[in-house]
Amino acid sequence: MKLFRFLEGAPTTAAAPEGMNPGRRRMLAMGCACCAMVAGGISPAAAQLPGVQSHLAAAKKAAGTDLLAYLRLGEVVDPAMADPNAMPRDQLMRLPAPPPGQAFDNLYFVGNKWVSAWVIATSQGLILVDAMDNDDEAEHIIDAGMRKLGLDPAQIKMVIVTHGHGDHYGGVGYLRRRYAPAVHMGAPDWDMTATKLEFDRPDWGRPPVRNPATDLALKDGDRLRLGDTAIDIVMTPGHTMGTVSLLFSAKQGQQVHRTLLWGGTSFNFGRQPNRMERLQAYIDATARVRTLARAQNVDVFISNHNGFDQAVEKLALMQQAQQQGKRLKANPFVIGADTTQRALTVMNECAQATQVAWQSGK
Predict the structure, then answer these.
(1) Of the candidates 308, 300, 213, the residue with the CA atom closest to the CA atom of residue 249
(2) Are 160 and 248 in contact (CB under 8 A)?
(3) What CA–CA distance (Å, rounded) separates 102 from 125?
(4) 57 or 21, which is more confident?
């Protein structure tokens, strides 16, 4: 599996309201200024500090051979942990979108190889989690993908934006104009997207403007309900300070699997002035959610980027088996409670390794 290379857009100073701008659909040329920002200026000496190496060793132990995608968060302090075959964001975006797919009876994938969009089906409509990069993707990947799966996009009652970066809110404008869903996002990220965007790109849609009458500023402990479905909101700051993760139940026949959708994974804030605060928030969040996941026996751990959870590859296995008239022994999305714990441990330990390196100032 080729993990994506994390590339955000260039920093910007002001946010503009959502709206369709055809010029924004053009892809950037390969390479972006901010890819040099991710590491935050860590030197080889800092990477070799005993504290750094101790946390990386713990991350490697937790990762085993099946969670290498999360282990590569350690590349921020140790470039040797990077995947040399990783495909940059722009290349991933240019790839044809994979077929949409059904992961569980009530959970569907309608994203591409770069960024995910998930649909949760309820008895009273649909919940969309994230809206991809722009109007074009919202129309031709999310909307079209839902229709291929037999889902009616007009039944989208709410869009939950996991965090305030354009590859997750970019298609909200199209969805609002077509279907008028409520849009919910973490309270700090509503503030950020209304004032000063952390990153921006010409191929991202404009950030949504909050309608106080319908759009929630999410906070920790909120519970969203639609029909027979409840989604618990867990604030997991770090990637942005308003990142939200979702806890809900995925159903497969008579089986119910407690599911965690992590809202923002990479340490993309190495040049931000509050980077230490954000890294500590990430460390605290992964530790707290690990305890929460253990208590709720979370055995499905998914992401909003395929490079981490390999959703596209898992769906391909399921679709291939279906086409061949075979039945898989187990749903590949059900990784088990212990593996969920290990994934959160890898993320936590890589963040702690980065913290030691950043604190050293070397």
Answers:
(1) 300
(2) no
(3) 16
(4) 57
Phi then psi dihedrals of residue 195, to 5 deg: -125, -65
Residue 95 Cα distances to 88, 92, 114, 144, 221, angstroms = 11, 5, 9, 17, 38
**Nearest in space to 265 (alpha carbons), one of 162, 196, 138:** 162
Local structure of residue 142 (DSSP, 8 states): I
SS (H, E, C) 245-310: EEEEEEEECCEEEEEEECCCCCCCCCCCCCHHHHHHHHHHHHHHHHHHHHHHCCCEEECCCHHHHC
Query: Global pTM?
Result: 0.90
Both tokens of 256, joined, read 């119910």
Place of tokens 């390479």: 31
d(CA 101, CA 256): 19
CA–CA gap between residue 353 and residue 258 (Å, rounded): 30
pLDDT, tens digit, for every residue of 241-284? Answer: 999 999 999 999 999 999 999 999 999 998 899 999 999 999 99
What order of strands is seen across the sheet that includes strand 107-109? 101-104, 107-109, 118-122, 125-129, 156-161, 182-186, 217-218
- Shortest CA distance to 309 belongs to which of 346, 335, 336? 335
> CA 92 from chain center: how many Å?
15
C-alpha to C-alpha distance for 176 and 19, rounded to whole angstroms: 10
User: Model confidence over 4-32: pLDDT tens digits?
Assistant: 444 445 555 455 555 544 333 333 322 23
- Residue 156 is classified by DSSP as E
Q: For residue 283, which amino acid is it?
A: I
CB neighbourhood size of 124 (10 A): 11
Copy the structure tokens of residue 104: 């569980």
Tokens representing 48 are 């070799």
Beta strands in the chain (DSSP E): 101-104, 107-109, 118-122, 125-129, 156-161, 182-186, 217-218, 223-226, 229-235, 244-252, 255-261, 300-302
In sequence order, which ranges of 33-153 are alpha helices (DSSP H)?
44-47, 50-63, 68-71, 89-94, 135-137, 144-148
